[in-house]
Specification:
The protein is of the alpha+beta class. Helix content is about 20%, strand content about 30%. It has 14 helices and 32 strands.
Amino acid sequence: MKKVVLLFVLVLSFGIFAQSSLNKISPQLEEVMNITPDNQDILVWIFFTDKGDNIEHFLANPTTVVSEKSLRRRSKVLPTDKLISEMDVPVNVNYIGQVQRLGFKLKQKSKWFNGISGYATKLEIGLIAQQDFVKKLDIVHKYKKDYSVEDNSGMNNQIQNDNQPDGVHSFNYGPSFTQLNMMNVPAVHDMGYYGQGVTICSMDAGFNNLAHEVFNSMNIIATWDFVNGDPNVGDEGDMGSGSHGTQTLSAIGGFQEGELIGPAFGSSYILAKTENTDSETPVEEDNWIAALEWADSIGVDVTTTSLGYLDFDPPYQGYTWQDMDGNTALITIAADLAVGLGIVVVNSAGNQGFNSQHNTLMAPADGDSVIAVGAVNSSGQRSSFSSVGPTVDGRIKPDLMAMGSSVYVASPYSSTGYTTSSGTSFSCPLLAGAVALLLSADSTLTPMEIQDMLKQTSSKSGNPDNLMGWGIINTLDAINLIPVPVELTLFTGEYSNGAVRLEWKTATETNNFGFEVQKRYENTSYEKVGFVEGNGTTTNRITYNFEDANIESGRVYYRLKQIDFNGDFEYSNEIMIDIPELSSYQLFQNYPNPFNPSTLIKYSVPQQSKIVIALYDIIGNKIKTLYDGIQQAGVHQLTLNASDLPSGIYFVSMTAADFSKAIKITLLK
């Protein structure tokens, strides 16, 4: 009887495979199944036919699937009534539950592709394929990492500081000056753009040394390990080593004056661990896609990925150079979808060098909307390892170039050490940081506008080719391409330390009496809250500032009424700022930060209270008391003058009743 039952199961399973493979099981998956033992799990995609019956609920409530920040970013590229679509609706949980009951072991979900990834045996795959709600099954492609040329060629005491002109720029860049100056970034920092207001997602193999001094002032707002399924993106107790991520993150956003400054040190960061370096097949496309969708939901503006995804040795299934057509690799399709949602996707071109027969690109750098970054050395010559195009469909790749040979980065193994590394892994974050500077200058720029501006102003803009694309970028020239009105331009606002700070610039001052600052809340009319005098008839670009400390929690809108001497006027664009709840004790982050020698510290008190505010050094020693007394309800401020203190990290603490909070401040002299 047992033999009969076994024979029946085998015949049934063969029938299932034969029937389903005709239309639901991909040829690639069939190939893997043919060489896989019956009881061995296969990593597969399951794509569903639809998302069930609850779609309208999600479409009517966009913030149930993405953040307000994500919606604002999408509004740059999508109609206001179509900021989300069925693509954003989560995968149907009932479908997931049904395939799990058939033995499927869930790994990742993708709402964009309406699918899930995970593990199943051949028999389970056949059973899953019979479900009416299952559209297709395919393999999850696995990839080689592309670290072939990357090295750590020296610690900081062996590296000579480059020749940065004394007193020319706002910061001392130390040995990192060359890699930033090649892109004309220091001049943009001098204009006051540090990437502030921009959210960047770094997707890498983990970040093992966030205790390094270059990250002391970095604003990390979210972390997730897509390999191990937890928020720890370091090495502690997890599979994988994050040394590579530490280096790439320091290149884009580190800040230690005199040593290493990243182009976007003022940005906020999302960190995603997508690679398991312990595995023989360390990169899997479902981790990267899940990380991209997660970052989008938070409200990311720029993504930077320094991993190479391409062919892996049999029996693992990867993509080949023939698939680099912009429409085959699933991660490439995902990257282009992200650009369509307003995200600037920046990716390493790869470290496979030149091949006279075909391209050497790595997905998703082949995407038509993705910025693929190649590498040059300190002299501006293409690095021999830098991958080349064209794509299979004939498009020029890489798109743009930045320094990728001997890039100065943080050491993964010391809290104060530095080293140099080479690879397009490092040209990619440098260029992504420059993108963040453009968005700081004008947050309304779309991904394609940014790409066009960088291409127009790069070193080979007139003669692009498949070795260097449009050439080495010039961040300053690109920012100067931002279209401005005849007079008013670059009107921005930011909430910080209990107040809203507005900043705007004028291109000229030929007939400017001044600016009336106007404000409104939801469902109210604009009212005047201040006036800033103009600067007469100067022809220089002028920067204006206004601070509004009389604020309420909620959404607030500002605009400027620019008035000429003859009484004519025009209104600026409207900007919107969200103010958090103020009916509690609050100690706000100091402004500016970093600072020299003084900074403003604001705090709110909900009722008359005794409060103590004190300054401490980095090891917890109290330096001095800044305030000790009874304070009335409201928002208050004090000025810390640190002219008598050395540069470094300090802490300001506030205690009141059962409230206690400390903030980290950075003094840079």
